[in-house]
Amino acid sequence: MPSPLKYNKKFDALTDEEKELLEINKKSIADFVEQSPSVSDVNYATRNAHAKTYAVSKGEFLIDKKVPEELQPFFDKEKYDLIIRFSNAHLKINRGKKDIPAYGFAVKIKDENGDLIANFPLVNFPLFPINSVSTFLKLFTSVNRFFVKKWSSFSLMLQVIKVIPSTFTGSFLKNIFKLWRKRNDFILSFNYHSVGVYRLGDFMIKIKLKPNSVDRNFGKKLKVKDALENYLQNNDFTADVLIQICFDEKNQPINQLNVEWKHSPYLKIGEIKIEKGSLLSPTACENELLSFNPFDNKPFFQPVGKIQKLRDEAYKVSMQTRLKINKLLKYR
Questions:
Q1: For the chain, what is the domain count?
Q2: What is the pTM of this model?
Q3: Does an H or E element contain 54, and which?
Q4: Which of 17, 123, 169, 268 is deepest in the core (most CB within 10 A)?
Q5: Gene3D superfamilies under this entry (predicted)?
Q6: What is the C-alpha R_g of the chain?
């Protein structure tokens, strides 16, 4: 294996302007979460992204016996316990409408004592349309303010227009077409991706989850939530866990998330398994309040990159506000 590019803090560094915009964005996140019970017409405060929970389940991460020698120190057990949350990416919980096919597969990995090892929020689209931190923060702030009715739709559209040019890459257009073709497919038939980059010690990696033998037409006539619950109650689910390693920034860019990595083959490091009947109650207090902040990860599994860096403060303010509101509402 060629020598991987090593992690450096420079990949995460934000400018003073970006830090100022982040503070504004954090305020908009808190405002959205405070208003989220009325935005989604529910009796609790929701997340400000992936608000809708389809299911929560137990699972296992089984380590492959052929993991490359260089990676073996990070996987010193044969298996790890998982908590998995399936979600929709929309900020608002829609009822009675067809969901957009933007799904989340968030994984919480624990050791034998129940202590957290890592959170990995995975999604079914491998790329992110925005490389500019300031553009992303302005857009995300305007989206939050739009939903709490502090900004007009015109202001939001101006921010959306600024994003459009970065979607015109071959990788992005190819994956948009693939998603469109699969828009009606069963949620468990999609591949899931980390989108951003993570540390694996001094290495930097992207993660891909590839389901095994799932019928993409399963539950065609059912709502996503009902189809997913039906499948997991009656079938085992397995998926290969694959990683790509960063060897050079030209072919595997850290802060350019709208293109796919090239010249870095996928390596299988294990398999996720969900045994049938492993569903947990998605509305139970401890499950609704689950946080999948990847900055809670052990140091050698931390996120990498400027866009990733924004997640830390965003997750924290969202979680803190949800806890505060839900103590007064659903879970008092």
A1: 1
A2: 0.94
A3: strand 52-63
A4: 123
A5: Catalase core domain (2.40.180.10)
A6: 19
